[in-house]
Write a structure and sequence with these properties.
Layout lengths: L2 H26 L4 H18 L5 H18 L7 H24 L7 H12 L4 H6 L8 H11 L13 H12 L5 E5 L12 H6 L4 E8 L16 E7 L3 H7 L7 E5 L2 H16 L23 H12 L1
Antiparallel strand pairs: 1-3, 1-4, 2-3
Helix pairs in contact: 1-2, 1-4, 2-3, 3-4, 3-5, 4-5, 8-11
C-alpha cells in the first residue's frame, strides 16, 4: 500500500468519525451554523480526497451527501432526523468501503449498485429539480424499461436482437458453443453526461469483447435549428462476450445507466429468421414506443443511412 493511500484511509476514518459527531450535535442544535459549516467541510474534503483514487463507489455517495448538506446550508431544505439517519447510513457504507480498500487496496465493482441506491436515497431528500440535474429523477428511460421487461421474461429476446447481422450472429454462436456466456447491454447515458466529462460513444466502443452494437434515440429529433447538441438522447444496445464481472468493473462509473441481460443461446438461432423478415418487409427502424412510422411521416427521425453509418462505426 502506498503512503498516499495509507494517509487517505487514516484521514477517512478521522473525517467519518467527525461527520458522525457533527450529525449528532446538529440533532440537538439544528440551528448551529458553525457545526453545519464544519460538517460540510468534512464531507467536501472527504469527497475530494476519494476523487484522487479510482473509488467511484465512494465518491458517488459522498458527492450526494455534499450536495444534500449544501442545500441545508443554503436553507433550501431543513435539517431533520431522517436526513441525519440517511447520512449516517451513508457514512457506514463509506467505512465498509474503507475496509475493502484496507484488505485489497481496491473496491469490488459489485459495490456499485449499493452505492447508487444510497446516493439516490440521499438525493431523494432534495427538491425535484436538483434530482433531475443529477439524473436521479427515478424515471426509467424507454430502453431501460424495455430491458427490465426483457429481464423479467428471460424467454423473450430484446426487439433489436432481430437486427443482429449475420457475421455478428455467427461469431456469437461460435463463442456460445465454446461455453462463453453472452450479455446484451442497454447503456442509457444521462442527458447531461457531456457536462461531467462523459463520452458515451468512446465508452461504448471500448466495451470488453464487443461483438456488435447499435444506437437508437430515446425521442424524435427536433428540427435542426432547435437541436440541442449538448443533450444526449441516445441509447446504446450492445452484444458482448465479456464476463459479467468484467462488464461490472468496466461500467462501474455509470452503473445506474446500465441494464444487463444474459443471452439465451436459442435467441441466436431465432435471430436469423427474424432478421430475414425484418429485412424483407421494408420497414424503417422503430421509434421509441415501438411505433413503426415511415420516414416520410416523421422527418425529424434520424435518416437510416446516417444511423447505419453510426452503427457501423460503433461495431468496427
Amino acid at each position: 500500500m502506498t503512503p498516499l493511500l495509507e494517509q487517505f484511509l487514516s484521514e477517512s476514518h478521522e473525517f467519518s468519525q467527525g461527520i458522525g459527531q457533527k450529525l449528532m450535535q446538529l440533532e440537538d442544535q439544528p440551528g448551529d451554523r458553525d457545526a453545519m459549516d464544519e460538517l460540510f467541510r468534512l464531507m467536501h474534503t472527504l469527497k475530494g480526497n476519494s476523487g484522487l483514487f479510482a473509488f467511484p463507489e465512494m465518491t458517488r455517495v459522498l458527492h450526494a451527501g455534499e450536495d444534500l448538506l449544501g442545500m441545508v446550508r443554503s436553507e433550501q431544505i431543513s435539517y431533520s432526523r431522517e436526513l441525519a439517519d440517511r447520512l449516517l447510513a451513508a457514512m457506514d457504507f463509506v467505512m465498509v468501503l474503507c475496509g475493502d480498500i484496507e484488505a485489497t487496496e481496491s473496491i469490488d465493482a459489485f459495490r456499485a449498485q449499493d452505492s447508487v441506491q444510497i446516493a439516490e436515497s440521499l438525493r431523494a431528500l432534495m427538491p425535484a429539480p436538483a434530482m433531475a440535474i443529477h439524473g436521479a429523477s427515478g424515471a426509467a428511460t424507454p430502453a431501460a424499461a424495455a430491458a427490465s421487461t426483457a429481464a423479467a421474461r428471460p424467454d423473450a429476446a430484446p426487439p433489436l436482437f432481430a437486427e443482429l447481422p449475420e457475421a455478428a450472429r455467427s461469431e456469437a454462436i461460435r463463442q456460445s458453443q465454446g461455453g462463453v456466456a453472452l450479455h446484451w447491454i442497454v447503456y442509457s447515458p444521462t442527458p447531461e453526461c457531456f457536462f461531467v466529462g462523459d463520452d458515451p460513444f468512446h465508452r461504448t466502443r471500448q466495451t470488453p469483447n464487443l461483438l456488435w452494437g447499435c444506437l437508437r434515440s430515446r425521442e424524435s429529433f427536433p428540427p435542426l435549428a432547435e437541436l440541442d447538441t449538448y443533450r444526449c438522447v441516445l441509447d446504446f444496445h450492445l452484444l458482448t462476450a465479456a464476463p459479467r464481472e468484467e462488464l461490472a468493473n468496466y461500467f462501474r462509473y455509470v452503473p445506474d445507466q446500465i441494464s444487463y441481460l444474459a443471452v439465451d443461446p436459442r435467441w441466436l438461432d431465432d435471430a436469423r429468421g427474424q432478421d430475414a423478415v425484418a429485412r424483407n418487409d421494408g420497414q424503417q427502424d422503430l421509434l421509441p414506443g415501438d411505433a413503426p412510422l415511415p420516414l416520410a411521416e416523421n422527418p425529424a427521425q434520424l435518416p437510416p443511412e446516417v444511423r447505419a453509418a453510426l452503427d457501423a462505426i460503433l461495431s468496427a
